[in-house]
Predict the 3D structure of the following.
Amino acid sequence: MSKYARYLNLNLLLVFVPLAILGEFLHWPPWWVFGVSALAIVPLASLIGQATEELAVHTGPRLGGLLNATLGNAAELIITIFAIRAGLLELVKASITGSILGNVLLVLGFSILLGGLKNGTQRFDRSHAGLNSTMLILAVVGLGIPSLFSHAIEAKHHEAVEYLSLGVALVLIVIYGLSLIYAFFALPSEKEKVPVHSDWSTSKAGGVLVAATLLIAWLSEILVGAVEPVVEAVGITEFFLGIIVIPLVGNVAEHLVGVQMAIKNRMELSLAISVGSSLQIALFVAPALVFISLLMGNPLTLVFNQFELISLVAAVLIAALVSLDGESNWLEGAQLLVVYAIIGLAFFYLPT
């Protein structure tokens, strides 16, 4: 079986790319345009992941790891940039929250559940799991401080909230960079010991990466443009779209790989995918969006509502408790999924 067999089924969804573009030009109903464009982004995000893996083979494990860390959430980053341009700042913040919740509860939950049912109790490195848990808690602290202090600060100096968000964003990016340096140079790497061969040339991988990125940018504009009409027509809230739908669209391929690794009893790698993606969102994507939004003239602050903060704290704490002992079983996976279902229901019924 090809090492890219996991991408084949997702690539079948490429048929939705021309359909989404056609639907936009023919003015199909908004919920049709939204659904088709969302489905079209999924295989393109998968292609970005595939092209990045191929480039990583050519560049070596260190630079390849940096490529994966940088482009791992490229699709969602592009979607949120277009949402910022459209002024949908609450949707952007909801998608940040939803990505973290989806990774540490939904993906990790399914990974532990299915991996446990297939392989029984699974074990992994406690020290690495502990380090990731600490980083997750740090990420929530970083996202939570501006939210908790914003009301008191804004009462005296409105612009200070923006300055606080910019300062926190800079610090979070710094600690994310330090964590990458530590991971690349202080932790042992299996990739350095196992020879890996590439099926694509550098030019092919680069071409696919550029083409997929440009198409995602186009489809993201279509997707974001359909958000407000969908909210009005279907009755679903913009907040729920950001918490549940948008994160799934950009990360389905990566989520599937994480679950597959757990089923293959490679729990260490599965944890690295799910928790690592959450850390990237909280410590790199969210802070980067703060600076990008400033350049776009639509400043985004790291001020989340109380429901988002409570959900993030609950998710990170239970994920940390599950992983700190260095082993997992299917019941712990079910527990994570139950927490995600409860939070999802609460956000579904939360009024705008």
Remarks:
- The chain has one domain: 9-349.
- The chain is about 80% helix and 0% strand.
- The longest helix spans residues 89-119.
